[in-house]
Amino acid sequence: MKKLIFVVIITVFGFNIASNAQCINEKLSYPIYKQGAALVDQFDTQGQEIVRIEYDLVFTSKESFRNLSADWKYTIVGFGDDGVKDLDVKVYEYDDLLEKWSLITEDASTESFALVTVKPTKDALYKVEVIVYSFNEGYDVARYGLMYVHD
């Protein structure tokens, strides 16, 4: 399943490289939504359910919070616009004993998209951190999309 999603992402991003570049100074939002729409179409075609979609600006990192169920295995996909060179996501579970967020999984690729799977150990609030480690030349801010998907 993870390999299939990876192939879908490569296909979507390969297609979008030829699309219009996005520059924050021109305030163009459509390209990131277009990438997301292609992913939605693919997930729907594969019979997967998207339970959350988020778009926002990112300068260095952003945090997103979501209640996840132990009944499901989730795939979390993060993707950046043309300004992003290296985007990663990290997923954290709150540790009541230590009273802090503990990292449970992360994507450490050097691509403009990230993909992780999570099988929660309990029904709880989880934190997903979207991190841009590097921007393409001429960018210091970009837009990202984040999707939470399960079968």
Characteristic key phrases:
Jelly Rolls; 151 residues; 2 helices; 4-stranded antiparallel beta sheet; 21% helix; alpha+beta
Describe this structure in words.
The protein is α+β, with helices and mostly antiparallel strands and about 150 residues long. It has one domain: Jelly Rolls, CATH 2.60.120. It is about 20% helix and about 45% strand. The protein has 2 helices and 8 strands. The chain has helices at about 1-15, 30-45, and strands at about 50-60, 60-70, 75-80, 85-95, 100-105, 115-120, 125-135, 140-150. The strands form 2 sheets. The protein has a 4-stranded antiparallel sheet with strand order 1-8-3-6, covered by helices on one side. β4 (about 85-95) and β5 (about 100-105) form a beta hairpin. α1 (about 1-15) runs antiparallel to α2. The termini are close together.
Strand elements, count? 8
- Quickly give the CATH architecture: Sandwich
Low-confidence stretches: 15-22
| Sheet with most strands: strand arrangement | 1-8-3-6
User: How many structural units, i.e. domains?
Assistant: 1
Question: Radius of gyration from the CA trace?
Answer: 15 Å
Largest sheet: 4 strands, antiparallel
Instruction: Give the overall shape, derived from the CA principal axes.
Output: globular
**What structural class is derived from the secondary structure elements?**
alpha+beta
Order of helices and strands: HHEEEEEEEE
Mean pLDDT across the residues is 87
CATH fold field value: Jelly Rolls
